[in-house]
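Researcher: Good morning. I'm working through a list of sequences from a screen, and I'd like to move beyond sequence-only analysis. For each chain I'm collecting a predicted structure so we can compare shapes side by side. This is the next one on the list. No need for commentary yet; just the structure.
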Amino acid sequence: MKSDYPPELPELTGAPSVSAPTWTDALDENSVPEGHMVQVFPLGVNVLLARVGGAVYAVSGKCAHMACPLSGGRLEGNTIICGCHDWRFDIRTGKFLDAPELGLTVYLTKVEAGKLLINIG
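Model: Good morning. C-alpha cells for this chain:
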C-alpha cells in the first residue's frame, strides 16, 4: 500500500534520530587523574573511566566474565585488570587480552567547557 504522505524524518520533526549520539555529562574533566580509574553512572549506565597518556577512555564498568565491578580492579598502563579473577582488558579497545573476541562495551568521550561527556548511545 502506497502512502500519499512523505516520510517524517527526525531532522524535520525535531524528534531524536535513532543514530544520533547521546552525549551525557559525566563529571568535571579534571576528576580523572592520569593513570587512575573512576566509576560513573551516566543515565544509570555503569561506566569506568580511565586516563592514560592524557586521553580519557570509557568502558563498561562490569567485567565480561562474571559482571564483577571493574572499579575494584587496577589499571596498569593500557590494561584494566579485574579484581575478581584477574581478567585483563585493553582500556582503548575493550578487548579481553586472552581472547580478543570477548570484550567490554566501549563508549566515546569528549571534553566541552571543562566537562567530560560520554556517548551512551
